[in-house]
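Entry:
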Amino acid sequence: MIGYVTLGTNDLPRAAAFYDALAAHFGVGRMMDTASFVAWGDWGGPAGIAATVPFDGQPATVGNGVMVALEVKSPADVDAVHGIAMAHGATDEGAPGPRGDDGFYAAYFRDPDGNKLNAFCMVAPDA
C-alpha cells in the first residue's frame, strides 16, 4: 500500500505553489511544511504527495518512466485537474480524453520540474 509519493524539485516555492493549486482541487492542504520539504494530504487519509529538495544536495532529476497517477471521480474532474495544472506552469503530455475502449479517461502533464503526472478516472465504457 502506498503511503505517499515524493517528487524532487529544484525550486521548492514554485513546486509548492503548483501543488497547492492541485491539492485545493482535492480538498486537502499542506500537512507538513519545512524549508526543504512540503507534503499535501490528510493525516490518516489516502496517499499524499510531497515535493522536496533532494537530501543529498544534488539537483533533482526526473525519473525516466516514472509517473504519478491522481485518481479523480469523473471526466469533468480530469478536465479540471489538467486545467489547473496548465494554469500553474505544467506542460501538456496528453489532453484529457478517453484512452482505449475500457472506460479509462485521463490527461497527462508534467509539473514545472518535469515530473510526469496524470489525472484519471474509470467510467462505464459507453458513458
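The CA atoms of residues 92 and 109 lie 5 Å apart.
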